[in-house]
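Re: the request from the purification team.
They wanted to know what the chain is likely to look like in 3D before they choose a buffer screen. I agreed to run a prediction and write the result into the notebook, where they can find it.
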Amino acid sequence: MKIFPKFFLSYWLSFCAVTLMIFAVGTYTFERDLFRFVNRIETAQLQTFASEIEDYYAEVQTWDFLRENPRMADLILRQRRSFDENLIILPNVVNERRRFRFSFNKNQDIERPGRLYLLDENLEIVIGNKDILDEISANESLEMILNDRFIVTPINFENEQIGTLALIISERLYEEIDLAFARSNNQTLRFSAIAGLLFAAIISLVLTMNITGPIRKLGRGTRSLISGEFKTRVSIQNRDELGKLSRDFNILAKTLDKNSESQKQWLADISHELRTPIAILKSELEAVEDGIREFDKETLQSLTHEVKRINNLVNDLYELTLADLGAMKYQMREMNIGSCLKEVIESYRDRLESSEIEIKELINTEAAFLGDSYRLEQLFTNLIENTLRYTDSPGKLEIHLTENKEDILITFSDSEPGVDPDVLDKVFDRFFREELSRSREKGGAGLGLAICHEIVEAHSGKINARQSEHGGLSIQISLPKGDT
């Protein structure tokens, strides 16, 4: 089953359960409260009736006449009730409920059996249906069940109880007005329940669409990413987890798009960097082959230079590929990083002097450091090569090595030309070179600083580029000391 019907049925069935529970509770409480209301009315009317019977008894002071003529009690009640002006001039629902709801008549319909009994002081029946009373009190005495099954009102004369009016507590509705009211209420409840179920279906549909709509969008977007359409974006305005998921999706798509473009650019740059030395080699070899150029020492040096250039490029690419795969090997051992840096500087001193680049080093630490000496030599070599390749002559290079409590700090700062501040964060990208000030004509493939970045990260350090106070580029490195 798809997610849409699952969500819809889950919501709708939940709403249905709540609606039906409310309907059941409402029906039950209405019937319970209606019976209580009816019983309260009948209790009040029974007290009024008892007062009428007391007045009659005061006149005749015997139950014999009523015992022999049970219909006389109804006649007395009707005669006395005809003088109640409120009931005559106010024919509304309240007065309808104030009408006496019962009678002593033994010959009522079977569906509405007599419920009212007049008992004398000995709880003997004066008026009432003896068969029904015997059925009710079959296993118990009348005195025991009187207060449980009856609404009881005493009849007093001269401060003595001379009888009892007892009304069987109703377990169903008999009066038409009560039945009509109950039917009307039940119809209202049923209509409300049906309307509630329809409304629940609408709400469930809206909620389901609100959830599954974004999910469908994310699904379509995911399929687009699978097919290679990395510029795909989804627009979901929800301020919930789905909204956050859509933003994460867009970040993922943007990252994939960026990586795809970088990969394409990477291949284009590799092709370009390899094409130049290969073209030079091809042209020189063809010149030698055609006899245009003699194969002498100068030609051999030129060919060797281009081969070395290709070899260096391939080696750099190999190093970066190993770094990407996590396969670049590091031999972490305790070492003296100051001594390592001094050795690299000394190896380049002659080349720097021949290029008219003044070098000034400030190495203020002999601290032990846990690192790979070979990779750190490669790091320092690439940074000095970068200065040799791009710094104008005469120029300047300052190298500082210091430490604080937690880190070893290394700075390489050279002189002009500088780098545009807007592209400083890109100098560690592969094949990046700023064309205007650090020209391709000075050689290099733009991989040296990218390799430096990988080496520093492998040592859990940080590397960044700033404008040098001497007008060129300043590379700042921070390496954590760690435990040695």
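For the purification team: The radius of gyration is 53 Å.
Please add any questions underneath this entry.
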